[in-house]
Fold:
Amino acid sequence: MNATTIMEIKPALNRYLRQFDSCFGRSTTRQYLPVYIQGQLSALPRKSIEPMADAAGIPARNLQEFLSLFRWDEQRLRNQLQQHVARHHSHTDSIGVIDETSFVKKGDQTACVQRQYCGAVGKKENCVVSVHLGYATPDFFTLIDGDLYLPKETWDANRDRCRKAGIPDEVIFRTKPQIALEQLERATANGLRFGWLTFDEFYGRSGPFMRALDQRGQNYVAEVPVDTMLWTKCPDILYKAHSRDRSPGRQKRYPRLKVKNNPPVEVRNILTFSPLLRKQAWKTYHVKDGSKGPMVWQAKRLMVWRADETGLPGQPYHLVIARNAFDPSEIKYFLSNAPESTPVEILLRVAFTRWTIERAFEDSKTELGMDHFEVRQYRSIQRHLILTCLSLVFLSEFCLGHRGEKSRGNGLPDADGSGETGAVVDYWPALFAEIRPDHQRCVYRYATAKRKSSTLPSSPNDPEITCCRNLSQKYNSLLSESLIAL
Structure:
């Protein structure tokens, strides 16, 4: 980052934040927006209210009241942020990514906290969980929405406890898939269009959630659990009773499945026992180049059917079974409602785009302090999540605009496999580290590019891998190494 780029940071941030002025009725409230955002973008080791206020030279109480008491429209701020992303980053190959993250919290006073599975530590812990919607294009990704998950038994059933934590009466228990659907509806209402959606097996387990996406005509690639029940052959359906079945007594419901049909089976057994899949050879695909080397997966595809809410088969789905080429014991199962002519490599590319929201969570926590909040009230946490999305969009846009065309290697290996496959992955220091007073600056250790010795054979790649690599370049596949951070 040269001196010219450093001098552009604050004017660019001021122009960016000016478009959200209408969300704040008073200038005395509006003045704290840049203070909060600059605090998140700064090099402070802890980005909670008190350190950010001290760095800005204002009382900490002012920022506390900015989150909790001051009147400003956080819902309008979120809508305008999504409209901004729609105006500047719309793309026919855009992918929406649904996932959740968690924040470890002690005590029982923080809104929505309870002992539950916490992905941040990989076990059950006292924590708060939020559901998020990410947006990714070939050269840009960010978070565009976030909502707290309100547990049913410990919070929704105790409205007095909810009121003490500032949870409005209209905020009731919703399942995480229901929250994700509401976020998707808000985003589309604000002009965002998703060519695809992708999500993990928690959401892929929810039949109502996936049927709602089918009804909206939204293409998706969902990872599904190993016990998902599917038909490998569409079962026959009876739509009316035959004369021999019209006997007195209990009337059967129609339409219904014929008695003589193959039963649905678990996806893990489809891989093991299905003759249709056993006849197929594994095809190898180069998904992308990661920081630890190329990601190469082998896949098989089969058209299958899933039961709807009435127990009858619906439309055909793609079942893509993928295994890690370097660790065949790692197997993933994906279900997609895309047209039957969709190539497997496209389905894999969408499925593995889930890394973008994981990277967005990591950047939001490590660089923007998304998990550093020390407030307890519901509104304060919700506002903090939206402001973090605001900061992340600016950070992603600024990095996109200043990364340059040839400033470094593109992250792809050379023909002999010895290229820079993971350079500058973690080169993302805080934007405002360079413009703070000398005594407040922090020293960062930047990751440096290292040329790795060739571990791949010198002979040309497998034609299928090369073909898929060319395809991924054609579609500008989302590579974590393609984003140069400041």
In short: The first helix runs from residue 3 to 18. The mean pLDDT is 82. The longest strand covers residues 123-137. The two ends are 6 Å apart (CA to CA).
